[in-house]
Each structure stands twice: as C-alpha cells, then as structure tokens.
Amino acid sequence: MTEDPEVATRRIARESLDRDDPTGWFENLYAAAAEGEAVVPWDRGTAHQLLVDWISESQPDGTGKTALIVGTGTGWDAELVVDRGYDTTAFDISPTAIETAHRNHPASRAHYIVADLLDPPADWHRAFDLVVEIYTVQALPIHLQPDAIKHVTELVAPGGTLLVIAAARPDNQPDDATHGPPWPLTRAAIQSFTTPDLHLIQLDQVPSPTDPTILRWRAEYLRD
Ligand SMILES: C[S@@+](CC[C@H](N)C(=O)[O-])C[C@H]1O[C@@H](n2cnc3c(N)ncnc32)[C@H](O)[C@@H]1O
Predict the structure, then answer these.
(1) The organism sits in which domain of life (predicted)?
(2) What is the 27 CA–ligand 1 centroid distance (Å)?
(3) Beta-carbon neighbour count of residue 163 at 10 Å?
C-alpha cells in the first residue's frame, strides 16, 4: 500500500532529525513531493497572507532596491516582492525547492539560488534593503535558532527593513515541551532579532485564519 503523503512528510523529517541532520529533510521532502509521494505542508501556492497584508499597508517601492527572501521554498513570496520592483534574490537550502520555484515562475525576474542560511555568501553581509523571513528559523531545532537569527539580522543593509513572520509559542511553554518541527518562536526569540542598530518597530500577534487558537508573529525591524 502506498504511504499517506502526510505520514510520509512526518517520517522524512523524523528520519533526518534522528540522524542529527537538521536540514537534510527539506531536500528529501521536496524531492518526494515532486514525485507525488509526500506533501510540502507549508506550500500554499500563493504568497503568505501576512506578507500580502504588510505589502498592502506599507506600499513599499522597491525601485533601485534589493530584497532577499530567506528559505523561499517554491517562490510565492518572492514573486510578490519582485512585483514591487525590488531586485530580488530568493534562496533555499533545497535544490529541488529552487528547481520547483523556477518551474512555477518561468518568467520570473527573481534570482532563485541554493544557499544555506547558516553559512550565507560573504557578499550578502548587510546587502539587502528588504529581508523577508517566513517560517525558516522555526523549521530549525531550537539550539540552531540563535545562530540562524544572527545570520538573518546580518543580511539587512543600513536603512533596510527586516520582516519576520513566524508561529508564536506561548511564553510559558519551555523548550523541552516544544516538539517540532516546527519549533515556534517565543517573544524572546522575536526580540533577539534586534541589535544595537536593528530596531523592532512593529510587532503584531495575529490569529491564523484557519485556526484562531494558533497565533503568528508579524515583526518589522529597521536598521539605522
Ligand atoms: C517551513 S518552510 C517555509 C518556506 C517558505 N518560507 C514559506 O513560508 O512557505 C522552511 C524553508 O526553509 C528552508 N530551509 C531550512 N533550513 C534552511 C537553511 N539553513 N538555509 C536555507 N533554507 C533553509 C527549507 O528548505 C524550507 O523551504
């Protein structure tokens, strides 16, 4: 009997995490999904609603500016950002995710690239006027999150904006009671994206439209 795709998704994640390979399962999952043997649970086929809301409220003009989409998956968020005029780079650790992004958006002006947030190219340091991080940090085990967060913050150019969208974890839920993936972010984790020159300027907790008991962060930061 063929395995249920949702069961396959959990199995693929667990096998990799049990091997102490916290990022290997993304490629395995996208590759299995490309064969119709698993589902990518976060692949919405559209941009994230909280990014759509931020763009419609802020009306950013990306002309002459650069944007970076972290853990882009199959590219739906990147396409929204490129449409605002940004010279947009979008990266993912999974080569199959990037191939799928190319296939989904064949005429795209975004640059889709395989790269690792935990070891980003040196020339990305403080290089992007807009950095969008949606659900990548929370997809990493909690012990890797501080390093991942630090790398995200180092991508933002002087005067640039960082937008973080993540599932919210209740403040009183300890790490060892959080059984991911995903490992949602505490308020303290959201605060830890700040640095002396990268300031949290707006923080919202928004209920999920499909399940109002699930809360998500939408956090906007600005670099001096
Ligand atoms: C939960 S998914 C979210 C995807 C997309 N941002 C979205 O919201 O639909 C996390 C994504 O981050 C990618 N990812 C995980 N670890 C990464 C890393 N170290 N560097 C780059 N991408 C990574 C995964 O391959 C996956 O596409």
Answers:
(1) Bacteria
(2) 10
(3) 23
